[in-house]
């Protein structure tokens, strides 16, 4: 089955969030990068951007399609992964590591609890992919 780290939370739009206190790292899941295919461009927000849960935070372009990226929680962007400008393929090769997208300060530390656990996300993906 897909690579779904237990210590992340997951959104139905296939973003993951890795929470550490009131800080978090956001990116797209391994399942999402496989569905997209080869990523050729990633557009991310500016540092300092305020995002509400569900807000579009940027977009990701692959050889197949352009997809919007959404903020899984209400947050402020504190860091953007500049490596993705020159190497967007990091999203494909290491979505949970070097392919992270933004680091944020979470407005409400309980909000990630509303997202899916790894197990729930795995079930969601299985339903969505019809397996």
Written description of the protein model:
This protein is an alpha+beta fold and 131 residues long. The protein has one domain (9-108): RNA polymerase II/Efflux pump adaptor protein, barrel-sandwich hybrid domain (OB fold (Dihydrolipoamide Acetyltransferase, E2P), Beta Barrel), CATH 2.40.50. 21% of the residues lie in helices and 34% in strands. It contains four helices and nine strands, in the order βββαβββββααβα. A six-stranded antiparallel beta sheet has the order 1-2-3-9-8-5. Strands 4-6-7 form a three-stranded antiparallel beta sheet. A hairpin with a 4-residue loop joins strand 1 (9-10) and strand 2.
What's a quick, concise take on this entry?
With 131 residues, the chain is an alpha+beta fold. It contains four helices and nine strands.
User: Could you give the order of the helices and strands?
Assistant: EEEHEEEEEHHEH
CATH class: Mainly Beta
Number of individual domains: 1
Q: Roughly how many Å is the radius of gyration?
A: 14 Å
Strand proportion, as a percent range, falls in 25-35%
Whole-number average pLDDT? 96
What best-fitting shape do the alpha-carbon axes yield? globular
Number of helices: 4
Task: Please give the number of β-strands.
Answer: 9
Q: What CATH architecture do you see?
A: Beta Barrel
Based on secondary structure, the structural category is: alpha+beta
CATH-assigned homologous superfamily: RNA polymerase II/Efflux pump adaptor protein, barrel-sandwich hybrid domain
CATH fold-type name: OB fold (Dihydrolipoamide Acetyltransferase, E2P)
Helix content: 10-25%
Unreliable sequence segments: none
């Amino acid at each position: 089955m897909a690579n779904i780290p237990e210590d992340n939370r997951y959104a139905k739009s296939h973003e993951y969030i890795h929470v550490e206190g009131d800080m978090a790292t956001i990116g797209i899941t391994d399942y999402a990068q496989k569905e997209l295919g080869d990523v050729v461009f990633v557009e991310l927000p500016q540092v300092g951007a305020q995002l509400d849960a569900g807000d579009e935070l940027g977009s990701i372009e692959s050889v197949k399609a352009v997809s919007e990226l959404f903020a899984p929680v209400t947050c402020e962007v504190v860091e953007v992964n500049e490596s993705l400008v020159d190497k967007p393929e990091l999203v494909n090769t290491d979505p949970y590591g070097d392919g992270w997208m933004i680091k944020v300060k979470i407005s409400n530390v309980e909000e990630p609890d509303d997202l899916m656990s790894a197990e729930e996300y795995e079930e969601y993906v299985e339903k969505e992919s019809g397996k």
